[in-house]
Amino acid sequence: xxxxxxxxxxxxxxxxxxxxxxxxxxxxxxxxxxxxxxxxxxxxxxxxxxxxxxxxxxxxxxxxxxxxxxxxxxxxxxxxxxxxxxxxxxxxxxxxxxxxxxxxxxxxxxxxxxxxxxxxxxxxxxxxxxxxxxxxxxxxxxxxxxxxxxxxxxxxxxxxxxxxxxxxxxxxxxxxxxxxxxxxxxxxxxxxxxxxxxxxxxxxxxxxxxxxxxxxxxxxxxxxxxxxxxxxxxxxxxxxxxxxxxxxxxxxxxxxxxxxxxxxxxxxxxxxxxxxxxxxxxxxxxxxxxxxxxxxxxxxxxxxxxxxxxxxxxxxxxxxxxxxxxxxxxxxxxxxxxxxxxxxxxxxxxxxxxxxxxxxxxxxxxxxxxxxx
Length: 373
Description:
Layout: H1 2-12, E1 24-25, H2 27-31, E2 36-39, E3 53-63, E4 68-78, E5 82-91, E6 101-106, E7 111-112, E8 119-121, E9 124-128, E10 134-139, E11 146-153, E12 157-160, E13 165-168, E14 177-194, E15 199-201, E16 204-213, H3 217-220, E17 223-230, E18 234-242, E19 251-259, E20 262-267, E21 270-279, E22 286-296, E23 300-307, E24 313-316, H4 323-329, E25 338-342, E26 348-354, E27 357-371
Antiparallel strand pairs: 1-13, 2-12, 3-4, 3-16, 4-5, 5-6, 7-8, 8-9, 9-10, 10-11, 11-14, 13-14, 14-15, 14-16, 17-18, 17-27, 18-19, 19-20, 21-22, 22-23, 23-26, 24-25, 25-27, 26-27
């Protein structure tokens, strides 16, 4: 029966059998002996798998003028049958509170540069500099948001453990799926996003994440939390996901505390808790109203409590992703992917304890809570 369920899940995307926690080798295990590895240029090559996958490069910007925006590349493949690429941008509160500028465009004639770290398509390019410190993002694929951006890391990149990867499968030597995230946690951005109504000066701080889900996304994770704090001195990021019951509801959390020139802590000894939530009447998911985040390194610890009383946006994922991904998960019983996004206008406080010294810093927060199944 499990073989039948697994075969059906691979083809139709239905729920997998409950293999239990032994069918996952989380990156948290790697981090017990090696908390993190510094990300170099060679780690940022596009995998562009020819089997089922969703690979993304995401940039989240916090401008000095107080505007939050993002740019994202999506490479997706379903069972080696069809590959699509998409370029997404978003400017929060473009026309006032709650009115966001969202653009999502399919790309044609995509390819990769010779090192494999750069992506290009008609009217879009996202290229890494030869020295591995800077991305240039150029897009004229949509007149509603023409992008010309330069993103430069100011602290080392990192991935958890040895290779940043969680493997899925009952045979650890021959996994059938994978998941990884690679981060630039502290980054500067300059340039512009030009809409038909306004040209934004996108100068400020950012975070960059290169991620791969080497399997059907709703099989890899049932829920997510993403936290990005950027202050004058410190950056704190956290990415957490919980697997479906198929893999024992395993929690995988990767996080980092950084400042210019150095990573103070990176690894998997982190936690994020929803302190309060209300049932969203539209999606019926528990919408978070307050968060408690902890980063727990050996010599550096940090804590942040965030009031999320006012949601910035509620995103119906299936309304915004390429058709090929909709076909991956659309119609699967119990699957309704929703992202609650928060861009608080008030500053948040990060409390840091470094080598016994306690420091508090206020900064900008962006966070997401995603529910899938």
